[in-house]
Please model this.
Amino acid sequence: MSDPSTENPDVRLQQLREAIDETDSALLNLLQQRKQLAAEVGVVKRSLGQPLYVPEREAKLLAARREEAAVVGLSPDLIEDVLRRVIRESYQQQQAADVHLQCKTIVVVGGKGALGGLFVERFREAGATVHCLDKDDWEQAEDYCQQADLVLVSVPIAATEAIINRLPKLPENCILADVTSVKEKPLQAMLDCHVGPVVGLHPMFGPQVATLAKQLIVITEGRQPDAYQWLIDTLSRWGAQLYTTTAAQHDEAMGFIQVMRHLSTFVYGAHLAEEHADLQQLLDLSSPIYRLELMMVGRLFAQNADLYADIILAHPENFAMLRRYLATFDEYLATLEQGDKSKFVDKFAEVSLYFGDFSQKFLEDSQRLLASAGDAHQLSQIAGR
Amino acid sequence: MSDPSTENPDVRLQQLREAIDETDSALLNLLQQRKQLAAEVGVVKRSLGQPLYVPEREAKLLAARREEAAVVGLSPDLIEDVLRRVIRESYQQQQAADVHLQCKTIVVVGGKGALGGLFVERFREAGATVHCLDKDDWEQAEDYCQQADLVLVSVPIAATEAIINRLPKLPENCILADVTSVKEKPLQAMLDCHVGPVVGLHPMFGPQVATLAKQLIVITEGRQPDAYQWLIDTLSRWGAQLYTTTAAQHDEAMGFIQVMRHLSTFVYGAHLAEEHADLQQLLDLSSPIYRLELMMVGRLFAQNADLYADIILAHPENFAMLRRYLATFDEYLATLEQGDKSKFVDKFAEVSLYFGDFSQKFLEDSQRLLASAGDAHQLSQIAGR
Model:
């Protein structure tokens, strides 16, 4: 600090900025070094046949750095957030554990579709003989299926049952599985048309994912779990998180998670369009949370209308639930129109009790997320200049 | 690689993990070093009276590191995400630029409330003489206000106009301002009761923010902008982003951004409660996007019912718009109940056109955000064990 330049704050500011730039470059080099180490971990794990994602190792690593950060007075959340981001990158670049399916013959019905194609690619990488069966080559169905160890159905929801019913007779040990986002009816159709092992899968992600690591796949048991265990093990080695439930519970939950959410998001967007709301102005005037919500609405309309219509139409029993939602909306809007605040406030308290500890947890988790949404918005603004 | 230990993959894996841990510790030390440099930048900026947040410097810094990353084969998004997270931490720890309000006397009506208190604290730090005026000490109003350079009204929406009308006569050069989340009526009330400078503010953030850096404040002009410029400059030096619009445009946008969003979120939560939906199961079965949406619903109920009721009730003219939303919902639900997919698909295409480039941009931005939401979920799961 005896350097005379430090007495001129403008010069000092420039020096500090250069020092920050140098630190950032050093940081960049460390990240590059870490990336190479992680890639090598991937190679070694492949040779050992170990799973890519080991939650315990990750938790231990983060806990150790958090503790270290606290000691030197750095925010433990900061180092954890940074490392999580770095680790995510590693997963995307590491190869999954070696999966050997050389002895398997797999038929993916709808394998030319986006989600079907993702599984075709993975199975082929693992050495399996994979046949894609689509509308235009259905005459091959019998040929392909007679040697199959697995027939995976990945077709639009509305067509799933009909296509399952059209399948030729499968070998007794062949697994019949589907990846439809409803489960009860396709599972029943599979059980009805095949005597061997049956399992229903619902991958809770889109075909754009870079890897299956950490992605959720819901499993609904059909028949002979021991016989389809190799398929489950394969998904697990690819890094997927598996959650097993019944088809009925799955479909009930999807009534909320998919049907209601998609429909209300659709109507929200349609309403904004009909009201000619000025989107740029809404963005300019939004806090991060509203910007996030608008983003969640708008993103729907960059996607496939048929897919969403099919999800909503697949379970007509949800319509009564949606009618009850509309009735609830009408009820509270009516009380507010009458200037009656008390019913709203009373119900609010009741719903708070229903959410219990979740609401506080959601508030905290979303604060963290919104902070990073704020960062991202800044980026778009700058990029848009 | 000629080290014999590398021939044993288990040993090699252990070595690699140790090397990763060392790299992470080195990274932690760099972050600590960067934090100290940034803190010193804050001190120098204070002495220079420079604003905390300089978007151009930040953009330049990120662009330089992105380029450097691309050269060495590291993901530019990775280094940018990491640096944004680090920069956010710096803002939270840096002190704002020196603001000198020693010569100002400021009255904050409702200064004991959370948001009012935030401003009281900032003004006091800047050296101003600050008086809080609340219900229980209203007899002081005349005393406090007769010397005031600024009277800032920060009270519940429903009470805002009444309180403005009860204010004593203010000095002619005194600024009268409010921070209510509706703007037309309070602005009019302020213009009616005071002949001097008037401005309406809407801080688009909650009182829990750590700093005003990058936070949005909407400004609606009232009267004599030159005379209230020192207040605007103060907000700017604290790092806030300012967006100026008319009270009418502000309120129209808030019909969507606040009223409609709050009410539909409230009804969504009330509906889940009435349907006795199993929240843990919904979370277990959710992909990151649904988890995020459930989080956005649940977080509402950890907050203040009165605040939300007041926001909805403040603009009765929004009720007609909300009725139109319900009618649109009913219309599309009815067509789907009849199994008519075409109207949904047609409208979907129309709304896609309305969103235009925004929908694709929202999809991309949200992908990025959802990836980090996935990281965070992992954390909660691990912490919950």
Notes: The CA atoms of residues 3 and 69 of chain B lie 31 Å apart. Chain B touches chain A through 163 residues (CB under 8 Å).
